[in-house]
Task: inverse folding
């Protein structure tokens, strides 16, 4: 037999502070105390983790992903990158170091961007990700459905990619992350 506790203002504040998406009706046994409520909330708390759904394979988006990942690692935060479709192509062994495609939004700026990257000694996106992965806090996953559709096998992907997984893995990681991004 359970008791439905309607969250009080204090309980709602705790839910909010611990990163829960929305206040929830908490069902617990009648003998549970506020301490039991606190334990439930801390279990629902999100981790210092960032989940990135990487759909694009253009250098501008890959560079943004690498910079955000490096920043998160510098802040001692885990990062899960789930690459799908064009994002998977960017991690293929044949394209990872040769892909110089920028998004259409940046077409007229590409020569200037490339020059500035060289002048300021900004490493390529894949080098930034490789460095961030050395921390042990970064995992890069390829979408199994997209790999199947694109006829991409794990051995055709750069070693930066940890594994090929289903979309359920992305949702599980995103559900426990404080930050989720679509790039």
Result:
């Amino acid at each position: 037999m359970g008791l439905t506790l309607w969250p009080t203002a204090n309980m709602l504040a705790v839910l909010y502070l611990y990163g829960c998406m929305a206040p929830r009706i908490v069902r617990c046994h009648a003998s549970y105390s506020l301490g039991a409520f606190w334990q439930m909330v801390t279990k629902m708390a999100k981790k210092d983790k960032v989940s990135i759904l990487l759909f694009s394979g253009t250098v501008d988006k890959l560079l943004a992903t690498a910079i955000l990942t490096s920043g998160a690692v510098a802040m001692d935060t885990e990062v899960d990158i789930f690459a799908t479709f064009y994002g998977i192509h960017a991690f293929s062994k044949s394209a990872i170091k040769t892909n110089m495609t920028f998004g259409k939004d940046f077409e007229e700026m590409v020569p200037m961007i490339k020059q500035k990257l060289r002048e300021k000694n900004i490493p390529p996106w894949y080098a930034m990700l490789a460095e961030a992965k050395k921390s042990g806090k970064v995992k890069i996953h390829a979408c199994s459905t997209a790999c199947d559709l694109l006829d991409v096998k794990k051995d055709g992907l750069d070693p930066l990619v940890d594994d090929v997984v289903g979309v359920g893995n992305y949702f599980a990681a995103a559900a426990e992350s404080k930050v989720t991004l679509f790039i």
